[in-house]
């Protein structure tokens, strides 16, 4: 008999994640709990139930923008995300396993409080890879360890996330490193998209296209990429007219970025294309020759997975990134990793790929192989299925 599994996501509900759980429906009756309007229904073998959340209610009365400002302020002050849902008791009464988003959400605290009454086992996805990152703030620390004491299984998104949990005292028996999967039915090499999207952006087949996708903010290393591009343009051994940098994304430092591009005279080489819907992002990946993510760690954050790297690799793109957080686990030998905040090393790595076509081809093949062997939806869902199955045999953990 199949167990009933609830995946509680609130307004973080995603059809991309739902695809991953389709692979588990042979063993579990999977239901997603969403708070996004219009998502209720059935998708394949998965039921989606919609219940209200605080954000949605305030949006409905015109206070959504104010709430998001307050939410950001609260997160900065006490380290807690105000994702809060209503009617959870009613929605979860028939489930034996409940999987929440992460430890630092009010929603997860709600689920920990309900656990004893509703007698389900509680699972969380765990992204944090810096030990004790939120412990300096009293409220978030108290919430965190209450939640930890009631989690039956942590699905760590990397070995670094697991190492962080171990340092914080979580028993290894409750930690499963599952990573995250990429849909290789959509993210795959596509020569037709390569040509069509280049034509859309007036790029020549002879252009060497370096692609960045992400938030426009300094922690993503976007300024280091611009400085490295200037080096490439000034290098007499590289045809500068064929170096094109495509930047997809929005963020708080767009004006500063545009000013930097102009001041370095890179208007003809750097093209900003703004926000691209995720439904179209695979085509953007496919027009590139090299994907670049020069992420820079901050005091309480370092790259937790770099999902955009997996998407690029699934499309057969060599990647140049940094030794930040969990990136080395994702890239493996399928790319070149440099020190963060070092535009000279970034320039050197990019120059190697531009001037050594055999290396470019080798890393392209290595990217595809890395994803196919470790990060397909099938690979990741098998790990998750094994973890959920083992969890069924264990006693529930914690005292609420």
Description:
This protein is an alpha/beta fold. It has two domains: 3-181 and 377-393, Glycogen Phosphorylase B (Rossmann fold, 3-Layer(aba) Sandwich); 191-374, 3-Layer(aba) Sandwich (Rossmann fold), CATH 3.40.50. It has helices at residues 15-22, 54-60, 64-78, 88-91, 106-118, 138-148, 159-167, 191-200, 222-234, 254-263, 281-286, 307-314, 327-331, 343-355, 357-374, 377-393; strands at 3-10, 28-34, 41-43, 46-50, 97-100, 121-126, 153-156, 175-177, 208-213, 243-248, 270-274, 290-293, 319-322, 335-338. The strands form two sheets. The chain has an eight-stranded mixed sheet, sandwiched between helices. A six-stranded parallel sheet has the order 11-10-9-12-13-14, with helices on both faces. Helix 5 packs parallel to helix 6. The longest helix has 18 residues, at 357-374. The relative contact order is 0.12. The mean pLDDT is 95.
CATH topology label of the largest domain: Rossmann fold
The N- to C-terminal Cα distance equals 28 Å
Task: Strand order, main sheet: write it out.
Answer: 3-4-2-1-5-6-7-8
β-strand amount = 15-25%
| Tally of separate helices | 16
Query: Percent of residues in helical segments?
Result: 40-55%
Text of the CATH class of the largest domain: Alpha Beta
Rg (C-alpha, Å):
22 Å
How would the global form be characterised? globular
| Low-pLDDT segments, ≥5 res | none
Largest sheet: 8 strands, mixed
Q: Which CATH architecture of the largest domain?
A: 3-Layer(aba) Sandwich
Mean pLDDT: 95
